[in-house]
Amino acid sequence: MLFNSFEFAIFLPTVFFLYWFVFQKNIKAQNLFLVIVSYFFYGWWDWRFLSLIIFSSTADYIIGLNIGKTFNKNKRKYLIAFSFAVNLGFLGFFKYYNFFVDSIISAFSLIGIQLHARSLNIILPVGLSFYTFQSLSYTIDIYRNKLKATTNFINFFAFVSFFPQLVAGPISRATNFLPQFYKKREFDLNLAKDGMRQILWGLFKKIVIADNAAIQVNYIFENYASLPASSLWLGAFYFAFQIYGDFSGYSDIAIGTARLFGFNILRNFAYPYFSRDVAEFWRRWHISLSTWFRDYVYFPLGGSRGNKWNNARNILIVFIVSGFWHGANWTFIAWGLLNGLYLVILYLTKINRKHLDIVAENSVFPDLREFLEILSTFILTSIAWVFFRAKNLSIAFHYLGGMFNTSIIQHPVSVAVLRIVPLIFIMVIVEWLQRKKNHGLEIDQINKPWLRWGIYYSIILMILLLGGKQQSFIYFQF
Q1: Are 266 and 172 in contact (CB under 8 A)?
Q2: What is the Cα–Cα distance from 430 to 443, expressed in whole angstroms?
Q3: H or E stretch covering 399
């Protein structure tokens, strides 16, 4: 069930009404209701997917209880290893089985040995990468004595399956999110209003920006071999805005929807394209996943302890693993490796922690240096996005080669390709003005109701009149 679908437009108000007007007085009933509607929401794609999330949730619930009950170090290690085996085993089989089989066949063919292994037609369950990481962080934090195991299985199942962020995040940590299922929730009108504003802004970014950009991106990447460099650069830039509008739009809708039900989900994007270097970009992009890898991969590897070369190695490992998490394709690994190299260079030159504040915090416009830093960071990330979008490494390298072809001077870009530019400009201006806020429509400080509602209606009209052809959310494939 897509957030930008007619079905969800019926589902959400129905669930909202029952949640607040039928089950409000009983928190246990509310949580059970959330589990049921979340499973309905998830099963809308394919009811068979439910068996995986139920099994994974049950396993981690039982494992968490047993880790919490024992002080035996060896037993605790066996239990956490079993949690890893269950979660990563599901992830490895459904997401990477064919990738490993095909890679082994290709490797042996290089030395003249032909293998004939049968690949399975495995369907990747929607959201598997997200809810397995969310559930796995729960058992890890119990193992690290940062969290007590919950004895309420309904609350735990609600935590894992909460429908707003189930299929594409943000990845919520149990230390922050699980306790919210134990607290009685009173309807907060101001929280709900802000949630509705954030949902509206998320829909704008998804329907108006991402879906329109997708049309141009698909055409350019499918015909890259016959297009000039100018079009290829536009294709890379458009994809940068497509994936941002798509994924941050989803996160805005998820966070806003959670607020309608009295929950606070942590921020997942903080205007990453206003970053002044790639290190700052990764502190602002997909924050829930970046911090997950920081806490559960980077720090256990040693983090920044030890010499600088060990730290550089740790950075590269994290980004390669992050790339692999995104998909079973060498393009994602190349994308992660390139971003890792960007960060290693910043680390070795000791400027990776240079930009910890908000850009142009005390002025309306960035100065020339900040503008050039933002522009260069955007170009570097856009080049990396080519690997993310390309179907294979060969296409990615040929595409990048075409971007640096001198034909950019000889072939002007058609006007039709530029029609989306004003829409992107609107989004960029709004988010620049709101860069100190949590989202683009956090405008409760505007005292004039006619102005606020004028903004709301303008965005609604753009969604209705200028929206592109409906596209599935990009991160559903991960």
Answers
A1: yes
A2: 11
A3: helix 393-403
Cα–Cα distance for residue pair 275/401, rounded to 1 Å: 26
Determine if the peptide bond prior to 170 is cis (ω within 30°).
yes
Amino acid at 407: S
Dihedral (CA of 192, 197, 198, 200) sign = positive
Mark whether 286 is an active-site residue.
no
Residue 29, both tokens: 């009933």
Distance (Å) of CA 345 to CA 14, 278, 306, 340, 348: 51, 10, 17, 9, 5
Structure tokens at 299: 């720090």
Contact criterion met (CB below 8 Å) for 167 and 476 = yes
Find the helix or strand (DSSP H, E) in which 94 lies. helix 73-110
Residue-wise pLDDT tens digits, 10-55: 999 999 999 999 998 899 999 999 999 999 999 887 888 898 899 9
Catalytic residue among 116, 286, 326, 355: 326
Nearest to 144 by CA among 77, 78, 89, 194: 77
Q: Indicate the angle between helix axes 153-161 and 49-69, nearest 10 degrees.
A: 130
CA angle 107, 112, 115 (to 5 degrees): 60
pLDDT digits (tens, 9 = 90+) for 328-347: 789 999 999 999 999 999 99
Nearest to 347 by CA among 300, 303, 315, 394: 315
Q: What are phi and psi of 183, to 5 degrees?
A: -95, 140
| pTM flag (> 0.85) | yes
Tell me the average pLDDT of the chain. Answer: 89
- From the number of C-beta atoms within 10 Å of its C-beta (0-12, 13-18, 19+), residue 410 rates as exposed
Angle between helices 229-260 and 368-389 (to 10 degrees): 90
